[in-house]
Amino acid sequence: MRFMLWRHVGPVSEIPCVSRLTAWVLLLTGLALAQPSSNDARMSSLMREPSRTLNFKVSPADAGLFYSNQEPVERGLDGAFILERPRSDLGAAERLDCEFRSAGFAPVHLSLNWSDIVKWSQAGGNYPQPISLQPLSAGAYLRIYPWLFVPVAATPLALLWLAWRWRKNQRILMLDRRLQTLVPSSARQLDPLLGLAVGKYRLIRKLGEGGMARVYAAYPAADLDENQAVALKVLRLELQSEALRRQFEQEIALSIQLNHPNIIRIIDWGWQESRAYLVMELLEGTPLLKKIPPQGMSLDELRRVLKPWVAALNYAHQRSIVHRDVKPDNAFVTKSGLFKLLDFGLACEGAEGMGTPGYMAPEQAAGQLAGPAADQYALGASLFQMLCSRRPFQADDPIMELRNQATQEPPGIRQFRPDLPESVEQALKRMLAPRPEDRFPNLDEVLRALSQSTAPS
Question: Is the overall model pTM greater than 0.90, yes or no?
């Protein structure tokens, strides 16, 4: 009975207590919801606060005003800026951070008190201080727009390149006009090589031509400066064989080493297709062959030429270099009277090779070793020609002339020049001996023999 009584009576007795508790909870919750927070109250007051307008004297006129949060400030119809008080969860802000901006100008930052803004707006909206934005510098542009560095850096380079190309084209046109003046079309028709570039030089005019080469006056191709003119010899010989090319290169390398006042200076050399060329100093004067009078030179004139000639050959022989083509054509007298020995391009270190018929020693013509004695033989033939205006074994056919050199004794020069002393004739006969061992032991002995000779009384 007691158990049943609890089940039916107990809960019913507790109902009023639960109801009262629930009612109190609902009452307190309703009051809380009905009471507005202080923040909401402040935000509501800000929402109800009117916007303020200020007029700024801004330069440039298209500058805009932006809040610190990057939002733009609206302009009114009269151009005034409409400012609103900043709002946040913490309440009304007392300062307004903003800045003026315009494309191409440095921004101007402002930090204004809201109380001042209110007073200025109530006073007519005139902000007394003018705002002037300064144009951005190049450095500022690059800091703001770093991608501009590429075109900014490329522009002067492009301008420099264009200026260089323009100057180069103008230089080419100027050189072309100068070349047309130096080498007219009529001259090119007579000689197709004129005006062409050979190595670093351009051929300007022809100086001479021989059996193995043509010689031109050439100017540097870069500027056609006539003060740097050279003599350029283009060999007719086409050296297709690699062995011949190597031998020629060795010979030129030896020739470049020669540094003597009576030997022409070789400046450079190279190949034009399969033809070799030599670049030498340009001499002004006359080839020795053209200075030989019809009746021949006097003995004193010959001695004046012989001394530097012997000095040049001795200098080369001491360095194991044999000229192998000694003749009056390869000797030159400058305007100042200086003797120059030419054409060491055919010289080599004791090697066999070809020369010129009428001057070539018999052993050289036979393809044997050509040493200093071969140069002595050629010098003797040259002196013979200088004294009587003809070669010792002169003939119409070069082959016949070579045969006479190999088979006949050298003629006596006194049958052509009776006024010369016997000692000169004997000295020349010894120089022209068919066998190398029968000649003078060296050129100093030749010079001594001819210097001591006197004309017959």
Answer: no
Domain match, 451 and 415 both: yes
Three-class DSSP category at 387: helix
User: Same structural domain for residues 428 and 305?
Assistant: yes
Q: Is 93 a residue whose pLDDT tops 80?
A: no
Indicate the length of the chain as a whole number: 457
Distance between CA atoms of 449 and 457, rounded to whole angstroms? 19
**Domains in the chain: how many in total?**
4
Query: Burial code of 230-249, b = ≥16 C-beta within 10 A, e = fewer?
Result: bbbbbbeeebeeeeeeeebe
Count CB neighbours of 252 within 10 A: 20
158-188 pLDDT, tens per residue?
Answer: 999 999 999 989 888 998 998 999 999 888 8
Residues 6+ apart with CB under 8 A from 359: 325, 326, 327, 377, 378, 381, 382, 391
Q: What is the token pair recorded at 46?
A: 């800000």
> Which structure tokens are listed for 241?
């064989």
Q: Is 367 among the domain residues?
A: yes
- Cβ–Cβ < 8 Å for 349, 250: yes
Domain with 105, as residue range(s), is 55-136
Residue 124 is given by DSSP the state T
Same domain, 305 and 418: yes
How far apart are the C-alpha atoms of 213 and 245, rounded to whole Å?
A: 16
Supply the residues annotated as catalytic: 325
Single out the residue of 323, 314, 377 nearest to residue 348, CA to CA. 323
Q: Check which CATH number belongs to the domain holding 61 and give it.
A: 2.60.40
What residue has token string 């969860």?
Answer: 89
- Decide if 436 contacts 374 (C-beta within 8 A): yes
Tell me which DSSP letter residue 409 carries: P
